Amino acid sequence: MDINWLGHSCFRIRGKQATIVTDPFPPDLGYTLGKTTADIVTVSHQHHSHSYDKGIGGDPRVIAGPGEYEIKGVMIIGIATFHDADGGKIKGKNTVYLIEIDGITVCHLGDLGHVLTTEQVEEIDDVDMLLLPVGGGFTLNAATGAEVIRQIEPKVVIPMHYKTPALKRELAPVDSFLKEMGIERPASQPKLSFNPSSLPISTQVFLLDY
Description:
6-stranded mixed β-sheet; 3 helices; about 10% helix
């Protein structure tokens, strides 16, 4: 499978049988979707910057909430969480998605705003690739993002939802998260490709270009 970051919380995940786009954004966010097409779109919550599915071509199936879905050989599980650390009282609900594609389990946290409960950790089990918000606000910041990594223990971590020169929102930069993790800034890459045998043995952080 291949994965590209289109900006913010939006990724394009290409497998042998299907293409998935997560949390598509509108043009006023600062990034561009281009002529992106997909078979499946996942929406973690209904805030405009995460739910612009009309920007994705190909007449995709849109998934926007908890449940179990199987589309074109891809298994997707949506798990109910919250957008803030106060049970959703401030920013509402959020859906975490587990996406099983080409033998790899990808976990997209959406705008998760809290560390996970024991029950949620049990549901989010055996993750190969974690797509992790790190920019703070009403989502995970550097410290809580690092804590969620310790809870899930994925093999691959790709930060998202942080400040870049393109983004027209105020969030913390990714460097704050890298400092919290105690690692040097890795070189950004335009795309990552993995199969089950090429995954790192222990947790490794990768940066993607948008």
